[in-house]
């Protein structure tokens, strides 16, 4: 998401124009400007009077402006709603992480008197919090039309989940759970021969589909296989676990490659012929026959749903063993439900575009209006009709294109929401929660660093409790008996002082 002017920040490159709609509308602006030039030249040189009555100009222009304004406003509303939904994911993730990390006991014994060690408890809770982080990442890929789990930023978070319904005995494709079955393909089948080796790059024998022989398939670690070029040295996936997969992991961010067609759209007509004689590259599937970037289509993805199922399963496990109080369990369940509701709302925003008939009719109406505009104002503006038509077409077409671009704010366009930044923010917050040591309040409350009764009483907690047998007594309250009466008077003085000081500051 671009929130600042990218044209004058850092080095200037032509790619920075992708943050505007100028590269999308300039061919249309040039066409209508050319029409205005022809009309002005023919009329002003006396070849033929092309001026027409402009009585409908004001009425039609007002109506068209209102319709374009509604189009842009409705698209921006979807943009803002998408941002709110990601805020809900962040809030629910924080709440779930705090409930699991703080309120689920570390030292515990189940109903069968089996005691869990501190290390086991921390590993269990941290693993479930990693699933919470994986939900936001899985939602990001789902909104971008990237199905499956084999991504550099998602696979390390959920790879420990069970692959097969039967924990023991032979495992076949019929036993594969939906989370994994929906992500598998014949080129890289899931191997059940043995777990991945600990080395960063190793091989494993994978059964072949034909003769039963084994072929070598490379395991690639998350940090060892990355070959995606970046404009900077920041690599967020380095903060994830260094796990290995039986198939190559896709990059966390895979936007369509920018080509010459993005800057010169009129050349797209030639792409039909060039594609017939060129070999397909790995980016061709992201462009249509005219060379335009294909917006990712929404497909059924059960990855975020499966993660919430495991979180609900963990909640049932906590309740079954009495590890969580009912009130906290209700809060945990409500936040998990909030993740599910937010996912449905995001799906609604991204998968419900403006009807094509409305978009087509609006664009055709705008084209007709701009095409007739020079004929209606040439008698009044003369040669000024040329820059006037250019400005009008740039303004109206720009607003129309902006509405179309931000209608689905979950893609890789420069003005779309920065889903990667949202996921990284959730990751940082969850790691901050798990860094909390949950200390006993006595360990930090009754120390010399704490002045709880300031500004009325600036003694620290250690001085106030130095003599536990002596009731609280403030030297300024000699007319009051020591004890709670003096303490309450101190708190009242606090209120008066704070009220006076803060009001003066404002």
Automatic annotation (TrEMBL):
Residues 215-234 have a biased composition (Polar residues). It comes from the Eukaryota. GO terms for cellular component: plasma membrane. It is a multi-pass membrane protein. Residues 185-252 are annotated as: Disordered. InterPro entries: YneE/VCCN1/2-like. It is found in: Cell membrane. Keywords: Cell membrane, Ion transport, Membrane, Transmembrane, Transmembrane helix, Transport. It holds the Pfam family Bestrophin_2. The chain crosses the membrane at residues 25-43, 50-70, 366-386. One of its GO terms (molecular function) is chloride channel activity. This is Bestrophin, RFP-TM, chloride channel-domain-containing protein. It comes from Mycena maculata.
């Amino acid at each position: 998401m671009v929130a600042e002017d990218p044209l004058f920040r850092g080095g200037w490159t032509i790619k920075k124009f992708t943050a505007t709609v100028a590269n999308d509308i300039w061919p249309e602006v040039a066409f209508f400007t050319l029409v205005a030039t022809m009309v002005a030249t023919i009329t002003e040189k006396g070849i033929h009077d092309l001026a027409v009555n402009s009585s409908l100009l004001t009425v039609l222009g007002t109506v068209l402006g209102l319709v374009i304004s509604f189009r842009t406003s409705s698209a921006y509303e979807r943009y803002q709603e998408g941002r709110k939904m990601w805020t809900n994911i962040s809030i629910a993730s924080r709440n779930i992480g705090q409930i699991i990390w703080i309120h689920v006991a570390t030292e515990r014994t189940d109903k069968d008197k089996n005691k869990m060690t501190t290390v086991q408890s921390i590993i269990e809770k941290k693993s479930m919090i990693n699933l919470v982080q994986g939900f936001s990442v899985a939602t990001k890929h789902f909104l971008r039309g990237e199905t499956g789990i084999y991504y550099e930023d998602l696979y390390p978070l959920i790879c420990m989940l069970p692959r097969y319904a039967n924990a023991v005995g032979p495992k076949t494709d019929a036993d594969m759970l939906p989370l994994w079955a929906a992500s598998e393909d014949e080129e890289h089948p899931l191997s059940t021969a043995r777990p991945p080796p600990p080395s960063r790059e190793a091989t494993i024998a994978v059964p072949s589909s034909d003769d039963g022989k084994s072929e070598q398939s490379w395991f690639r670690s998350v940090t060892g296989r990355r070959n995606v070029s970046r404009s900077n040295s920041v690599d967020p996936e380095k903060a994830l676990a260094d796990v290995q997969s039986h198939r190559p992991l896709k990059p966390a961010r895979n936007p369509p490659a920018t080509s010459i067609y993005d800057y010169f759209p009129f050349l797209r007509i030639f792409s039909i012929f060039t594609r017939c004689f060129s070999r397909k590259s790995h980016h061709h599937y992201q462009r249509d026959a005219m060379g335009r970037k294909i917006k990712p289509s929404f497909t059924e993805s059960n990855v975020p749903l499966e993660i919430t199922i495991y979180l609900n399963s963990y909640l049932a496990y906590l309740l079954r063993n009495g590890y969580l109080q009912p009130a906290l369990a209700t809060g945990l369940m409500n936040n998990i439900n909030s993740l599910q509701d937010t996912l449905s709302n995001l799906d609604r925003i991204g998968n419900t575009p403006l009807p094509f008939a409305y978009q087509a009719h609006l664009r055709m109406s705008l084209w007709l209006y701009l095409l007739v505009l020079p004929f209606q104002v040439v008698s009044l503006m003369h040669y000024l009709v040329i820059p006037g038509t250019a400005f009008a077409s740039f303004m109206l077409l720009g607003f129309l294109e902006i509405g179309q671009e931000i209608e689905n704010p979950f893609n890789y366009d420069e003005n779309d929401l920065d889903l990667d930044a949202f996921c990284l923010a959730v990751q940082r917050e969850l790691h901050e929660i798990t860094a909390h040591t949950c200390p006993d309040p006595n360990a930090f409350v009754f120390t010399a660093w704490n002045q709880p009764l300031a500004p009325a009483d600036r003694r620290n907690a250690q001085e106030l409790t130095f003599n536990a047998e002596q009731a609280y007594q403030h030297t300024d309250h000699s007319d009051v008996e020591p004890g709670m009466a003096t303490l309450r008077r101190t708190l009242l003085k606090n209120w008066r002082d704070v009220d006076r000081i803060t009001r003066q500051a404002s």
